[in-house]
Design brief:
about 190 residues; alpha+beta; 4-stranded antiparallel beta sheet; 3-stranded antiparallel beta sheet; 5 helices; elongated
């Protein structure tokens, strides 16, 4: 198993081989264990899976992209989502009780440099976190009220937390407004640098 810590995800690659005498299928499951958190965390949490069909003696390389966001947990004391830097264990198997590979990795997510530019696939949680940086653009396109509502209501926070900017069309904001906001916000941010 190979694990690569990328800018916004973990890339997990592994080989799977059919050693049987007939065609077969296997569901490869990837679990992550957080060994760093200062609170009790589940020993293993399912993060990805894929069904793989294999002919007799066939080997396939399976690659998973696990977003860093998948390693977040909600810190009630701080009232925000948190990612811990430190040791994680990546497990691969056909079930939680049938782990066939495991490997530890130390990651430093919170101190990584992230892009200052936003795009249609930027999560609303990032806009909430960087609200002050985009204040004029949020006001110009009347998105400040949505962001404020998300901040003030924990139920909305859980709904909007993993929502992409382009998904705002589901709350009756047209895609042109979203794209115009993105352009204005990126220009506003670049003027601050």
């Amino acid at each position: 198993m190979q694990i690569t810590n990328q800018e916004s995800s973990l890339k997990v690659s592994l080989d799977i081989k059919n050693k049987g005498n007939i065609f077969g299928e296997e569901v490869v499951q990837i679990y992550i264990g957080n060994r760093t958190s200062d609170i009790d965390m589940p020993f293993k949490e399912l993060r990805e899976f894929e069904r793989v069909a294999l002919e007799v003696n066939e080997t396939k390389t399976i690659t998973f992209e696990i977003p860093h966001k998948a390693m977040r947990w909600y810190n009630e004391n701080r009232g925000q989502w948190q990612i811990d830097d430190g040791k994680y264990i990546i497990y691969a198997g056909s079930s939680v009780k049938d782990i066939r590979l495991e490997q530890s990795i130390t990651i430093n997510i919170t101190n990584q440099t992230t892009s200052n530019h936003i795009h249609e696939d930027t999560y609303l949680s990032e806009i909430v976190t960087r609200k002050e940086a985009f204040k004029q653009s949020l006001e110009q396109y009347n998105l400040d009220k949505i962001i404020d509502a998300v901040i003030e209501n924990p139920e909305l926070t859980s709904i909007f937390e993993n929502m992409l900017l382009r998904s705002l069309i589901m709350v009756n904001i047209d895609i042109k407004t979203v794209r115009d906001f993105i352009d204005a916000a990126n220009e506003e941010k670049s003027k601050q640098e």
